Predict the structure.
Amino acid sequence: GVKIVTIGGGSSYTPELMEGFIKRYDELPIREIWLVDIEDGKEKLETVGAMAQRMWDASPYDVKVHLTLDRREALKDADFVTTQFRVGLLNARVKDERIPLSYGMVGQETNGPGGIFKAFRTIPVILDIVEDMKELCPDAWLINFTNPAGMVTDAIMRYGKWEKVIGLCNVPVGAMMAEPELIGKSLDELVYAFAGINHFHWHRVKDLQGNDVTGEIIEKMYGNDSGIPANIHDTPFFIEQVKQMNMIPCGYHRYYYRFEEMLNHMLEEYHDPEVGTRAQQVKQTEAELFELYKETNLDHKPEQLSKRGGAHYSDAACETIASIYANKNTHIVVSTKNNGAVPDLPADTVVEVSAYIGAAGARPIAFGSLPAAERGWLQVMKNMELVVEEAAVTGDYGLALQAFTINPLISSGETAKRVLDELLIAHKKYLPQF
Ligand code: NAD
Ligand code: G6P
Ligand code: MN
């Protein structure tokens, strides 16, 4: 049987993960699941852990869910390690969002100053986890969901020197779930091709005769559900721009293609005490979810979890694990080493692309060069990520300032430096490297 370890097991998403494993038990025979958390997440771990065990007990399968604060005990002889932790929990995210917004800047979980600081807090922790894995489960696969998932996955390979890693996101899953219906097709009648980096990729779609149907989907996207995650305000893209590129940008591109409107919307919510930033809204949803998880007769994933932006993420995570285990060679969009799939970026950097997933991991599918406008964006964004990673590893203040300066959502100057300094102070406890 397979041993699964989930770091950040106290997450409210854990039932989603259990549901995905239960659905796939026949091809992925799990023996035991270890949910790992830390002292600050102990209560959440106990509540959601009991819920996870109830889900298995209500299934036909005999799987034991172990709960522990001892990561090393859990990692011993693991086959798959999944990571879904948040350093500093949601309170840290509140600061990532509110401090930049208080200066009129974008305050978002994975973009702008907040995304940079989430990387600063997370990368040292993930590198520690990798060191433990080298010792305790050197053959295991690391399936990373922890955001910013692209930078975290890149850092695992670049600085952790750990190759058996796959980074995942639910955004491509959402697109592939919603779009086919818009043109009266099912997913298996279409061929999807994604390229870019996490939360900054585009895709094209063909039918089985090889005809490009991207334009048809673009026409139907407006006014319909195109699968963008619940956390992103749906300011539509300019249709002339999207038609011109003939690629579908991911939901997060709104922060770049409609910067003005997205910032104004965030500022409105920030200034409205009844609403607050996304992290404040999510804290409310999380509290409701944990109240439900405490109900000892609840043994399936509750509907309310779909209010979170990461809905359906187990479809990516559990399918990836099952595909590696059973060498299925399934098409899944993953963060993995480029190796030429996107020639506009270096071969050794992590990209988010369509790939075949099998026993040897991810084999990225060649996408080819992007048009000049998208290539320009992508190269800036990827290099921004590399600067952030290096700053996270070295704790070099000058590099942190460089990261702020190259980030397209941050205007340079005194205010940017002040936001950087304020975030460094606010997160001091989680930033020993600075
Ligand atoms: P959360 O605030 O509930 O945190 C999850 C758990 O991580 C908490 O119980 C916390 O105590 C624990 N934790 C914190 N530091 C830890 C450490 N050093 N070791 C072990 N556990 C630790 O977070 P959430 O909202 O459930 O999100 C979890 C993570 O998954 C975040 O990083 C989030 O950005 C990410 N996420 C990614 C996607 C994606 O598309 N890749 C989708 C959803 C969520
Ligand atoms: C999206 C992204 C995730 C992100 C989540 C935020 O689905 O893919 O990477 O973490 O939304 O959702 P939340 O409910 O926490 O705002
Ligand atoms: Mn994501």
Observations:
- The chain has 16 helices and twelve strands.
